[in-house]
Amino acid sequence: MASARASLRDLARARACAIQVWYTFHMVPGLRVGTCSWKYPSWKGLVYSRAAGIDYLAEYAQKYTSVEEDQWFYVLPDPAVAAGYAAALRANRGIACKCGAPRKTGALDAAGGAGYTSGMSVTLREFTIADYEAAYALWQSMEGIGLSEADEKKNIAPYLARNPGLSFVAEEDGILVGALLGGSDGRRGFLNHLAVAHSHRRAGVGRALVERSLAALGALGMRKCHIFVLAKNRAGRRFWRKIGWQERTTLLVMSQDVIAQRAPAH
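-> structure tokens emitted (266 positions)
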């Protein structure tokens, strides 16, 4: 009952905020109104339709003229992802990039193309086996990542070879500050071992790595992607929910060793 009352209060606040935004937008000519990011499943029925598989950005652009894209906070925008966003926007709609201590500033606009905002000189590129030692050291320093024999270099090398262009790292001045493994079974995508150095947390690096891998998976025709998160990793679960992922409470993971199994007797 208490949670239901809390949900009703949240809905009432959201509706009041929406009314205030609408009033402000129509009373101040030329003002652009938007929110921080747009992919929030909890907004279905309020901002978005309740249909499955909706295009969040396309529906968002029907109601608002601007949105803050915080995945590029301190990170140069990925050109392919930015182009996809621009294609989904209506004319005179724009995406503003969040900036920390800016060296360059800009915006993504449906009419004017893409610019960028960057503070740290963080860049993303494909994960290669040459990055293994630095990535493994980063994974070891993360409290929410479980490592096993499957994560040894001899096993990661064939994984990268079977899934080219799906895993990425983030670097600053040649130092690896983030890593993510991405793969596919041909039907669904899978992300593993997302890690960002503590010095670069809350700067959009993790989100940027995820978006880069999802874009690569999408180019292969993958319509859905899954992740495995340790149940006790509360910070990790908060992060994934924040960027739009949903927990599947109706599923559980079951595992069995394959190599240890002896061939059935004939």
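Residues 100-119 have pLDDT under 50 and may be disordered.
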